[in-house]
């Protein structure tokens, strides 16, 4: 997400590094690079001009804060202005208390409307505890109905069996009546799209909205984040014709340049409410401008990481593991559960980017695919072990290793390598257990990047030269 923009910002900030104070002369080159980075990210030129002027005004008017170097102050100013440009804070959906809230999902073809409708139903059902009804109302693409019903079944979500021979406004009215009879809180209506904005499409959506006007509907436009300024122009057209209440950016996990996210609110006045961050139904996040600004500037996004952890990690499992750890016990089963927890949080790269400063370290580490592949291989080995072997790997003899190798499709050497690595992990967790009992947590020895934060200036660590062998994850535990 915005990797290229993040790199350009990092390069720009080097110009002010080591300076004694912020002055017009030493931020001139930095602002020039920031401006170029934003324009290359396909941000609206008026937005860029306004952004640069505001940052310059704030930076030159900023009083020197003792103990905070000029570079950190400048980064903070840029962060706050980025957040302000994208909308300052998250704008939540406007629910009708004690009634039914209709949500119209609109946009052009191929932007991800139907997929988003499914994701939103899961989000509102699980996180907001709402009783949701999915409604297919795309009368131009009948396959969209099958797609939405398939998604609904996969998530155990209720859907409305729309009669596609009817006008979408009549389908919406029928769905609202059905929702009232069946005690629904939210009705998500997946409307038709086109390859481009046209009068017929807008007229149809207007009629659907007018039919729901007394119910104060949410109208969310789904836009492909990769399309940059085109997404902004489409949002402007939809808003002028229909009146949007929010925008959703899909495909934010791709190499999105950032133009749409950084321009839409400023140009249209319509807030971004959600971002889609992956292909799975659970990959939907509320849009928080300040958090995204933090990710772009490698300041992390700890709040989102905590929220993901709360949703993905079983509290009882985690507490049970901590109790066993306090007793100095750490089994292969515990290790497997840790891997499951990590998997539920997302890819290793996405997790690292949410930890302050880790984005820069990730660039040094490089491709994490070998690490993730090795974790998959470890999982297969563990699945080939018996319950007794997982509880106590020390009972394993040569015959056990031979059986596990055959059952997992690995060599005996690879199984022995896993056991050796697990022994190291066990020792590390034993050390961690002693620190927990002693009330001290100076670091996590053996965990890459966590022992004094190597390679992260300003956070207590020194840069280490990469090893010739095993420098990337895959040569250590993973």
Give a verbal description of the structure.
Residues 461-471 have a biased composition (Basic residues). With 478 residues, the chain is α/β, with parallel strands linked by helices. The chain folds into 3 domains: 3-86, Four Helix Bundle (Hemerythrin (Met), subunit A), CATH 1.20.120.140; 101-299, P-loop containing nucleotide triphosphate hydrolases (Rossmann fold); 313-438, 434 Repressor (Amino-terminal Domain). Helices cover 53% and strands 8% of the residues. The protein has helices at residues 3-13, 24-40, 45-61, 70-86, 113-126, 143-154, 168-181, 199-211, 229-241, 259-268, 289-296, 302-312, 315-326, 332-345, 348-353, 358-365, 369-383, 387-391, 398-408, 412-438, and strands at 101-106, 132-137, 158-159, 186-191, 218-224, 246-250, 272-276, 284-286. The protein has an 8-stranded mixed sheet with strand order 3-2-4-1-5-6-7-8, sandwiched between helices. Helix 2 runs antiparallel to helix 3, helix 4 (70-86) packs across helix 11 (289-296) and helix 5 (113-126) runs parallel beside helix 6 (143-154). It starts with a helix and ends in a 40-residue tail after the last helix.
